Structure to design on (937 residues):
């Protein structure tokens, strides 16, 4: 633990009737871009507000470096927030909005710093306007400037890009990352958009129902999910039920509906009993049913293509297997791959190294995006 | 022809609305007109001839200007009292939890909905039975006015306050403003327009009140009371001068505020 | 990627603690002292022995007979007041709804100006404006002349000193009290609901009937309460624009007070107030208290 790491210890927040945050432990390394990722209602915003001081935890502590800030008022914490709705002061100009924090701290030499900060977010000429005269994207940048100018130890961002259209969002993602690298402040970015989290963050923590499911570098989480929720929430996964048994020394053997699959031991969280065999759709290749393959791939045979979606970059297939489950396959449109049509009989192949194995007691539907949240 | 029909139906509602608005202003025109009246006799209220005399000698009728002064004094004091009390109450109702909220809502609404005769007579009953019958006058009028203005202030400020996003205050605290600073730099400036409207409304209601004042005024004569008396005795045209002045003043105030806001917006956008 | 549904758990909660009571106290005290207590006093005054007077003092005998006496003598004026107020309220709805609707939906950038225009007549004294109506409806005035010319009125007809004049005055004076709450309710209605109605095959009138009207109900009810009740107790319009046969209950109460018949006046006042309280209670029973203030 170095200088100004942000550490949450055993933080719990209960509202009447439900627990928003449940005994949470989190460490955000100083100077990193940290993403707190999860679906609506998982408690990520509440956690952020606890760090900001806008909510008091029911129990647990928040420390910044050596200092325990758990009971400090928001205006005493070296932490600033970029609110989801921007929360710009409508009766003040952009200049005064940005200068607000500095003035409350009693700084006199405000003009120079405000100018620099507005230039950083490319809004130098808008200083005398009022918030309602700016577009959404511009307001968002003002909110960022207003927070950054105070050089906080931690900058909290509550789904700041949610209200922007796709193109602008992509632009701002790059901007934010650039600013963070330049300024070197710890950013804690709360979002429900897994692409956004993976693109921008050094470390991602996936949160669900008040607890952290898994935390680590984006690629780590993606390739080595430790729970079905993470497997389904980040990207998409095929989860197939099977029975694991001891294989040879380096591999675990898993029986899936009568077919034997090999998985390297270090990719299997459990090596005996009921398991979920996980394989990401983009790692799977389709071949005509019965075609011979050269490599030592895992294979599930005799599927029937039930859906073909041409996305442009890739083609997405659904293949219904003998036991009724539909598996997803994403084939890159390199031009060199064979394409299939609905009704074709296919075999599914993938490298054993790409498999991940999870304990069957987990809910295979956890984290799958629903069209209408309950 | 069809185009005309469509134009009519599109603008029908607006047209009706404007007609109703015009209807509301008809008596005002009469008031302004009559302020230039040269009455042929004291009896009979109609337009006889044009003169500027009324405007040149507004205080000629006996006791009228004193009545206006009294009404203004009471208006200002009642406005200050009702605005302060009402604003505090509005904050309590919107921002704080307490038991008896329903009761508070009901008893804030009832004065607005009560007939003035009931309010006035009940206050008179209070003053009489508590031995203040001998001192009916300035203070009793003031007490009564603060009472009936209070509810209107609460409603007006409450409406403004309820529309205020609490996240603005959270943002202020996030930016190192303590509770006191947050209130003065964020909350108060944003509620102020509501408080101002409430104050203006208060003043109008107070200046204009007759029934309640009449019952509780003792020997004092406010402007509406003077007008009432004049309606029996004979209406001096100067009454309409006062009426016109009041109207123009208030109109100027409100329109001035509106124009000022528009000009500020235009200047910044340029 | 599904569109985000923001369910940030930020309860717009209210603060607990004593500050609420402290803020409430001054105003609450004032209301109790100068509204509630007076009403109680009024009730007890209404139970005085009517034989007393201001000079000789009143004997509190719990004399409920005051109520019976008063209702017997003045039931006609009472019912008349309710009647006039009722008609005036309906007239206010008929005139006020289109105006409120126009301001809320059709005014565009003139909205604020129109709102000012609704309140502006307020600024002239209520009495002076009513006197103006006296002039407008006068026997020699041009409205009466025009009506006679158009054969809508007989040669000896008059507008002044008739129930119609009183009702016209009442309608005029209480119109803002109908328009403003209605406007407040209508303004909250999302414009897109009208579009949704049209999209779902409703004619403009049906959209109004099924969407706008129900949603404007809180404002309509508030406006009705704020118009009918004060109108029922008014006496200025009846006095200035009516005659002895159009006397309303307010005139009676005022006269009784002037004449020193305090117990009777109080009893009549309380009867009027009870009718109002019943109406407000019915409203609260249907819609709760949160929308009141």
């Amino acid at each position: 633990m170095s200088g100004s790491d942000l550490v949450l210890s055993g933080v719990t927040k209960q509202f009447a009737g439900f627990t928003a945050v449940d005994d949470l432990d989190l460490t955000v390394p100083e100077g990193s871009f940290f993403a707190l990722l999860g679906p609506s209602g998982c408690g990520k915003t509440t956690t952020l507000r606890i760090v900001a001081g806008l909510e008091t935890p029911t129990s647990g502590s928040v420390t910044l470096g050596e200092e325990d800030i758990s009971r400090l008022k928001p205006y005493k914490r070296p932490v600033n927030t970029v609110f989801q709705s921007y929360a710009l002061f409508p009766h003040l100009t952009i200049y005064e909005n940005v200068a607000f924090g500095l003035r409350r701290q009693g700084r006199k030499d405000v003009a120079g710093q405000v100018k620099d900060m507005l230039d950083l977010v490319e809004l130098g000429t808008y200083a005398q306007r009022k918030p309602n005269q700016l577009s959404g994207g511009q307001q968002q940048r003002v909110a960022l400037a207003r927070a950054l100018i105070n050089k906080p130890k931690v900058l909290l961002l509550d789904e700041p890009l949610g209200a922007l259209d796709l193109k602008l969002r992509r632009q701002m993602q790059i901007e934010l990352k650039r600013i963070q690298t330049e300024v070197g402040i710890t950013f804690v970015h709360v979002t429900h958009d897994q692409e956004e989290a993976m693109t921008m963050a050094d470390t991602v923590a996936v949160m669900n129902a008040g607890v952290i499911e898994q935390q680590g570098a984006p690629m780590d989480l993606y390739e080595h999910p430790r729970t079905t929720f993470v497997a389904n929430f980040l990207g998409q996964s095929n989860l197939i039920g099977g029975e694991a048994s001891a294989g040879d020394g380096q591999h675990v053997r898993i029986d899936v509906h009568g077919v034997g699959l090999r998985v390297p031991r270090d990719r299997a969280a459990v090596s005996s009993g009921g398991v979920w065999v996980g394989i990401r759709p983009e790692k799977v290749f389709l071949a005509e049913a019965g075609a011979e393959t050269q490599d030592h791939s895992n294979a599930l045979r005799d599927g029937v293509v039930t859906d073909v979606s041409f996305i442009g970059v890739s083609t997405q297939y659904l293949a219904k297997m003998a036991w009724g489950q539909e598996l997803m396959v994403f084939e890159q449109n390199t031009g060199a791959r064979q394409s299939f049509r609905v009704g074709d009989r296919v075999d599914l192949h993938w490298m054993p190294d790409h498999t991940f194995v999870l304990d069957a007691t987990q809910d295979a539907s956890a984290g799958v995006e629903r069209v209408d949240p309950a | 022809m069809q185009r005309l029909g469509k134009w009519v139906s599109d603008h029908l509602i607006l047209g009706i609305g404007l007609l109703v608005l015009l209807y509301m202003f008809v008596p005002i025109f009469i008031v302004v007109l009559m302020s230039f009246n040269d009455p042929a006799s004291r009896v009979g209220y109609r337009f006889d001839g044009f003169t500027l005399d009324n405007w040149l000698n507004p205080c000629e009728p006996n006791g009228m200007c004193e009545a206006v002064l009294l009404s203004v004094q009471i208006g200002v004091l009642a406005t200050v009292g009702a605005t302060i009390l009402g604003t505090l109450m509005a904050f309590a109702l919107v921002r704080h939890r307490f038991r008896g909220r329903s009761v508070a809502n009901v008893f804030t609404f009832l004065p607005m909905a009560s007939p003035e005769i009931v309010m006035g007579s009940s206050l008179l009953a209070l003053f009489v039975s508590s031995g203040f019958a001998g001192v009916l006058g300035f203070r009793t009028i003031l007490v009564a006015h603060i009472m009936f203005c209070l509810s209107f202030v609460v409603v007006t400020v409450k409406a403004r306050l309820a529309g205020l996003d609490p996240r603005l205050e959270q943002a202020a605290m996030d930016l190192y403003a303590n509770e006191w600073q947050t209130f003065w730099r964020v909350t108060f400036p944003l509620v102020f327009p509501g408080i101002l409207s409430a104050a203006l409304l208060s003043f109008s209601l107070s200046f204009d009140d007759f029934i309640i004042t009449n019952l509780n005024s003792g020997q004092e004569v406010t402007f509406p009371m003077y007008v009432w008396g004049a309606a029996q005795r004979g209406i001096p045209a100067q009454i309409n001068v006062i009426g016109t002045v009041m109207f123009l003043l208030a109109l100027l105030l409100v329109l001035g505020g509106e124009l000022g806001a528009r000009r500020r917006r235009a200047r910044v956008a340029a | 990627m599904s569109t985000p549904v923001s369910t940030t758990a930020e309860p717009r909660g209210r603060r607990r603690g004593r500050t609420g009571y402290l803020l409430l106290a001054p105003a609450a005290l004032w209301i109790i002292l100068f509204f509630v207590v007076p009403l109680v006093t009024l009730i007890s005054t209404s139970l005085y022995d009517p034989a007393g007077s201001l000079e000789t003092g009143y004997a509190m005998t719990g004399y409920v007979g005051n109520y019976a006496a008063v209702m017997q003598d003045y039931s006609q004026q009472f019912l008349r007041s309710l009647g006039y107020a009722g008609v005036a309220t309906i007239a206010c709805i008929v005139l006020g709804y289109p105006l409120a609707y126009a301001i809320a939906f059709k005014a565009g950038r003139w909205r604020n100006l129109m709102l000012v225009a609704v309140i502006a007549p307020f600024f002239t004294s209520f009495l002076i404006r009513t006197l103006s109506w006296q002039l407008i409806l006068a026997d020699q005035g041009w409205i009466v002349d025009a009506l006679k010319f158009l054969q809508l009125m007989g040669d000896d007809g008059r507008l002044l000193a008739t129930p119609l004049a009183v009702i016209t005055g009442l309608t005029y004076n209480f119109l803002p009290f109908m328009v403003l709450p209605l406007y407040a309710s209508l303004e909250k209605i999302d414009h897109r609901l009208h579009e949704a109605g049209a999209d779902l095959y409703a004619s403009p009138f049906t959209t109004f009937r099924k969407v706008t009207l129900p949603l404007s109900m809180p404002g309509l009810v508030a406006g009705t309460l704020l118009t009918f009740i004060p109108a029922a107790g008014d006496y200025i319009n009846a006095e200035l624009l009516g005659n002895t046969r159009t006397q309303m209950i307010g005139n009676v109460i005022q006269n009784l007070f002037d004449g020193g018949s305090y117990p009777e006046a109080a009893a009549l006042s309380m009867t009027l107030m009870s009718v109002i309280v019943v109406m407000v209670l019915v409203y609260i029973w249907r819609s709760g208290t949160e929308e009141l203030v």
